[in-house]
Write a structure and sequence with these properties.
- This protein is α+β, with helices and mostly antiparallel strands.
- It has one domain.
- The strands form three sheets. The protein has a four-stranded antiparallel sheet with strand order 4-7-5-6. Strands 1-2 form a two-stranded antiparallel ribbon.
- It is globular and about 45 Å long.
Amino acid sequence: MSMDTEPHDQTRGETTPVFRDAQAAPLSCNEAASLCTKAARGAGMSWGMAEEAGFAVAWLVSRGIDGPSHLRAHLERSDGRAWSELCPSVTPGLWRNAARQPNCPIILGATLCDYATLPEGPSSGRTLTLGPVSAPLLLVPFLAVLAHDNHLALTLTWETGRVCIDDQDVWLQRAARALSVLELDLALTARAARYHHPCATTKPKAHTTADTVAALNTLAMRTTVPATEASRAGAGSTLSDND
């Protein structure tokens, strides 16, 4: 497998690898997070939300899951959609997207964490209808943090299954199998639980594909494109930039 680096590309760090064929493309956790952050920004996310995407990917990668591929699938589906078509409309018990579009898992996950102690949030004994969620596995890192920080066991349910995020060591394996789909219509139930540690990290690298790296690099390159009259007028970013 051929590989080199292109240190002058501003969308990558000094050591981010560029793969020249269709073979497996191992990235370090930091490389994956950096590339995915820039790709998310290139796809229209604010820098703050793009950093949340990088966090989610790094969390999955450090546990042996191909986070970059899941983010690529989501970004390609959501590219060009307005903020209003990606974020949840937060009301007590109902977190569906107001435009009846799939919620972005990054925006949804970050918002759930922000609302953890608020009346509309995922407190013990409450069920939230999330509605359709794109690339639902990307929601898992946020739920794991939410469960850990607030002593909760969280259960995601959909028409044909459920995954409980709790203190059992096997829950992530189940989640990775069940949630590795393009979209699911989800509900989230919270209950009080004993303190539990997050899933231990297992693998230091993301074993993704060269095609995925190339697709993410293409999105990341948008962050270096010179401003045009359209972008100066406000086009070019479909998401709110309230970091």
